[in-house]
């Protein structure tokens, strides 16, 4: 499999992330994902998407820890 380019269009980025282009457009318009416009086209830097995914995955781990801590505290009551 070939390496993804550093700057991707919406179709390439949706394939890289494994989401539909409709979902990716939704994330862009909700400002949930790093993107920029070049002319009238949305572009995505692979390095920024990688950092965004890393932050999201760490955020999910933190949320699971909080949920476990709350459940343990509730069990002690």
Describe this structure in words.
By secondary structure, the protein is α+β, with helices and mostly antiparallel strands. It has one domain (7-76): Multidrug-efflux Transporter Regulator, Chain: A, Domain 2. It is built from 3 helices and 3 strands. The protein has helices spanning 10-17, 21-29, 46-76; strands spanning 7-8, 36-38, 41-45. Strands 1-3-2 form a 3-stranded antiparallel beta sheet. A hairpin with a 2-residue loop joins strand 2 and strand 3 (41-45).
Chain-wise SSE layout:
Elements: E1 7-8, H1 10-17, H2 21-29, E2 36-38, E3 41-45, H3 46-76
Antiparallel strand pairs: 1-3, 2-3
Helix pairs in contact: 1-2
In short:
With 77 residues, this protein is α+β, with helices and mostly antiparallel strands. The chain has three helices and three strands, in the order βααββα.
Overall geometric form:
elongated
Number of domains: 1
Mean pLDDT: 88
- What's the CATH class, please? Mainly Alpha
Low-confidence stretches: none
State the helix count.
3
Percent range of helical residues:
55-70%
At the fold tier of CATH, the topology name is Multidrug-efflux Transporter Regulator, Chain: A, Domain 2
Beta-strand fraction estimate: 5-15%
**Rg over C-alpha atoms, rounded to the nearest angstrom:** 17 Å
Q: Give the name of the CATH architecture.
A: Orthogonal Bundle
Structural class: alpha+beta
Keyphrases for this structure?
single chain; alpha+beta; Multidrug-efflux Transporter Regulator, Chain: A, Domain 2; 3-stranded antiparallel beta sheet; 3 helices; elongated
């Amino acid at each position: 499999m070939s390496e993804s380019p550093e700057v991707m269009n919406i179709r390439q980025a949706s394939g890289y992330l494994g989401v539909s282009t409709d979902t990716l457009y939704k994330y862009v318009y909700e400002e949930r994902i790093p993107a920029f416009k070049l002319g009238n086209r949305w572009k995505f830097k692979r390095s920024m998407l990688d950092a965004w995914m890393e932050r999201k995955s760490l955020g999910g781990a933190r949320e699971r820890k909080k949920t476990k801590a709350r459940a343990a505290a509730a069990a002690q009551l």
